[in-house]
Amino acid sequence: MDDLYDRIGRFLADHRLSPDPAHYSFAYQILTEPNGTIAQAVDRLSDGRVRLTARDIEKLGVGATGEAPASEPGVVALRQDDIAEAMADGADRLVAQTQAQVEGFAMMVRAMHDETRGFGRDLEQSAAAIVRQPDIEGIDEIARVTGAMIARIHDAEKRLARATDETDDLREKLAEAHLAARRDPLTALPNRRAFDEAFAGRDTSRGVWCLAVCDIDRFKRVNDEHGHAVGDRVLSVVGHTIAEACGEHLVVRHGGEEFAVLIGPTTLAKAAALIELARTAVAAKRFRNRDTDRSLGAVTMSVGITTIRDGETGEQAFVRADQLLYAAKTAGRNQVVAG
After folding, report:
1. What is the DSSP string of 62-86?
2. Are residues 239 and 101 in the same domain?
3. What integer is the mean pLDDT of 48-76?
4. DSSP string of 100-169?
5. Is residue 113 located within the same domain as residue 207?
6. Helix, strand, or coil here: 336?
7. Can you spell out the DSSP letters for 210-277?
8. Is residue 29 located within the same domain as residue 160?
9. Contact 160/112 with Cβ under 8 angstroms?
10. What is the 3-state secondary structure (H, E, C) of 183-222?
11. Which of helix, strand or coil describes residue 307?
12. Region for 28 from its dihedrals, namely left if φ exceeds 0, alpha if ψ lies in -120 to 50, beta otherwise
């Protein structure tokens, strides 16, 4: 990972790009996908040149915001979500790397603590035995030197004990950071990163898994009429209502007003019945604006749910579930469409 960071840094320096998120993500995608569309375009543009120009980067669809120009709909571009995800990937790998280093340091400190504690105890016992032999020549000097050594060992033990405590505290904080990277800060539900990891780690030998994509109907109206603070509360309540209805199955806030549910192992019919309970529970909620006591009206959601096929990526399954979600919206919203 350190090598990748170094390569990204060199790339930015070589092309005189500032280290803002859009440029970082631009370099990250090129270096991690050397055969990708953007990397190939960079090779063509930079052929025979020392570096890319700002205009070259704009041609690739990556400007100050990391978004494609509206006039070039066919261009490959990086969205803000992609930039944030790339940055989060880098931070998460750094946390994991630091965790491994701290674990190794903690083991070393504990071993040193145990060894010095045993050595200090043995030295004290030996010193006590020597003092009981007054006829030994130079006993006073031996006692003085031994006493100084014991004092230093006790001091070292205290410092090692403090280092052990501090290391344990750091390990806890790193574990919290690792967990926070997989939590949506608004709803406290797992996020897209947690979904991707769960999707990759699911046990397909136990049976079929299903993916449901849930989207709050006409959510823009809630924000427009009642404000984003009210919209945030609606998002949180809807997310937790889905999670309560789905029990042990993973419910994540996938982005915006969209939630994804990984259900399994089970049949599509059972998964659809479960998500129908979640849809019904959301529709039964009665939301009011706390500040004005005004009713928000009906808050419902549409859902597309599908079976995850063998060898299929999360993105492929999500595209199909999203198409079913669109069908639910087209058919009148507030319903589940399975396929």
Report:
1. --TTS---TT-TTS----HHHHHHH
2. no
3. 47
4. HHHHHHHHHHHHHHHHHHHHHHHHHHHHHHHHT-TTSTTHHHHHHHHHHHHHHHHHHHHHHHHHHHHHHH
5. no
6. strand
7. EEEEEEETTHHHHHHHH-HHHHHHHHHHHHHHHHHHHTTSEEEEEETTEEEEEE-SS-HHHHHHHHHH
8. no
9. yes
10. ECCCCCCECHHHHHHHHHHCCHHHCCCEEEEEEECCHHHH
11. strand
12. alpha
pLDDT by residue (tens digit) across 111-152? 666 666 656 566 666 666 665 665 655 566 666 666 677 677
Q: Which residues are paired to 253 by β-bridges?
A: 259
Q: Is 294 helix (H, G, I), strand (E, B) or coil?
A: coil
Sign of the C-alpha dihedral computed for residues 260, 266, 272 and 273 taken in this order: negative
Give the Cα separation of 150 and 218 in Å (integer): 74
Tell me the CA end-to-end span of the chain in Å, nearest whole number: 41
Residue with tokens 């005004």: 294
Give the total residue count for the chain: 339
**Bridge partners (DSSP) listed for residue 261:** 212, 251
Active site residues: 257
Tokens of 223: 């924000």
Q: Tokens 């800060």 label which residue?
A: 185
Token digits of residue 4 = 């990748």
Tokens for 245? 């209805």
* Cβ-contact 336, 305 below 8 angstroms: yes
Band (pLDDT 50/70/90 cuts) for residue 182 is: confident
Residue-level pLDDT at 213: 97
Full domain range(s) for residue 92: 85-180
Answer yes or no: do 164 and 198 share one domain: no
CATH number for position 325: 3.30.70.270
Apex 149 CA angle, 145 and 155, nearest 5: 145
Tokens 């270096």 correspond to 31
305 beta partners? 212, 338
